[in-house]
Automatic annotation (TrEMBL):
Biological source species: Blastocystis hominis
Gene Ontology CC, one term: cytoplasm
Family: Belongs to the adenylosuccinate synthetase family.
Cofactor: Mg(2+)
Name recorded for this polypeptide: Adenylosuccinate synthetase
Quaternary structure and interacting proteins, as annotated: Homodimer.
GO BP annotations, alphabetical order: 'de novo' AMP biosynthetic process; IMP metabolic process
Catalytic reaction list: IMP + L-aspartate + GTP = N(6)-(1,2-dicarboxyethyl)-AMP + GDP + phosphate + 2 H(+)
PANTHER family: ADENYLOSUCCINATE SYNTHETASE (PTHR11846)
EC number: 6.3.4.4
Binding site for GTP: 13-19, 41-43, 302, 328-330, 410-412
């Protein structure tokens, strides 16, 4: 029996998970999404063109791979078909390759409207959501009134469930002039294409594992946005940690294989909430400009700051990463000094983990280490030993601080701009021995 390998973020999302999935995806038979919805934005470069995915797994670009949108996801049917149309324009075939769990919940247009109203009515306490209807859909799920994809197999039953849910939201939000019949008609028109995609994904995935199929899961968002472990309430509405992968696909913890953690060489976040290493100055603007830090889903400028290893250490504690991928190392080129947040102090005392109250996290004092920068262009480098010495030291500093090997290093936006950096790491007390193998 094979196991499920997983790619997870380590910060507040937008770390570059798609780049690793695109790099290693050709080795897998099945690629999955397990949580979230169209609030996630994964961008890869295909033939010099940036292509953004919000719902469909990036693995769809791998011609050998089947793709699954798992039971833990919430699915906007219209967004799904918009992405399928975009894939067809790129000559990427999806027929008999993309499947949606019959247990995944449906995002309706009124969910999106209510998402916007929630933000509008929250004033200074707004979360900064993508307004894609994700939160209200998960609310429907938890209230046990949501509508699942499997109900589309029986149109009369689906309409009954839809109307019950719509009436709840119409009364709760005083919705007026909402054309529910138009939404129903549009969904009905898509059924000939949609119904063949809807499967029992739990059985499909577990049978595939029994058959020895290799499965890769593309995590959405990141642990610092996790509904339980993130900077609550400034979080997403689902589990963005390894636990969400298990429940979002219906696999046993014993079937979890390698867990890859994606670390951006600096830190970004979109939306509201505390951000201890944020740089509200020229450095923050420089990182945003050079790193093209604008949300793939919303287009909003991302908040930027120094790498925060207190955050990454915390998410490693939660998810036990076997391997790290360091992305956007090239963005740091040209800096004389690079600062890294190593730990937090709160009221003069060292903080273990991340404070659960956002008011406390907002006032922590960050303890920084300073490392020398480099000026050489690294976008063409493909071997670790060819990186500038100070860039190598930056990578090694992160590895030694976290105790996790960095096996992939992103040095540019293209698919080829990756250093494969395989390490056998042996810790003996404080002595760390590294063996570098280049592929």
């Amino acid at each position: 029996m094979s196991k499920v390998d997983t790619v997870l973020g380590t910060q507040w999302g937008d770390e570059g998970k798609g780049k690793l999935v695109d790099t290693i995806g050709s080795k897998y038979d099945i690629c999955c999404r397990a949580t979230g919805g169209a609030n996630a934005g994964h961008t890869i470069i295909i033939q010099g063109k940036a292509v953004a995915f919000h719902l469909v797994p990036i693995g769809i670009v791998q011609p050998q791979a089947k793709c699954i949108i798992g039971n833990g996801c919430v699915v906007n049917i219209f967004t799904l078909f918009e992405e399928l149309d975009a894939l067809k324009q790129e000559n990427i075939g999806v027929k008999d390759r993309l499947y949606v769990s019959d247990r995944s919940h449906i995002v309706f247009n009124f969910h999106q409207i209510c998402d916007g109203l929630n933000e509008q009515n929250s004033g200074s306490m707004k979360i900064g959501t993508t307004k894609r209807g994700i939160g209200p859909t998960y609310t429907s799920k938890m209230e046990r009134v949501g509508v699942r994809m499997g109900s589309l197999r029986n149109w009369d039953r689906f309409k009954e469930q839809y109307m019950r849910l719509y009436n709840i939201y119409r009364n709760r939000y005083n919705l007026k002039d909402y054309d529910y019949e138009d939404e129903l008609n549009k969904i009905h028109a898509l059924l000939p294409e949609l119904l063949p995609m809807i499967i029992d994904s739990v059985v499909y995935i577990n049978e595939a594992l029994d058959q020895g199929k290799k499965i890769l899961v593309e995590g959405a968002n990141a642990p610092m946005l996790d509904i339980d472990f993130g900077t609550y309430p400034y979080v997403t509405s689902s589990s963005a940690s390894i636990g969400g992968i298990i429940t979002g696909l219906g696999v046993s913890p014993h079937k979890v294989g390698t867990i890859y953690g994606i670390v951006k060489a600096y830190t970004t976040r979109v939306g509201e909430g505390p951000f201890p290493t944020e740089q509200l100055n020229e450095m923050g603007e420089r990182l945003r400009k050079i790193g093209h830090e604008y949300g793939a889903t919303t287009g909003r400028p991302r908040r930027c700051g120094w790498l925060d290893l207190a955050v990454v250490g915390y998410t490693h504690m939660l998810d036990s990463f076997d391997s790290l991928c360091l992305t956007k190392l090239d963005v740091l080129t040209g800096m004389d000094v690079i600062r890294v947040g190593r730990k937090y102090l709160l009221d003069g005392k060292e903080v273990k983990g991340i404070p659960s109250e956002q008011q406390d996290l907002a006032r922590v004092e960050v303890v920084y280490d300073e490392l020398p920068g480099w000026s050489e262009d690294i976008t063409g480098v493909r071997k670790f030993e060819d990186l500038p010495v100070n860039a190598q030291r930056y990578v090694e500093y992160i590895e030694k601080t976290l105790g996790v090997p960095i096996n992939f290093i992103g040095v540019g936006p293209s698919r080829e701009a990756v250093i494969l950096h395989w390490i056998v790491c042996c810790n003996t007390q404080q002595n760390v021995v590294y063996l570098y193998i280049y592929i």
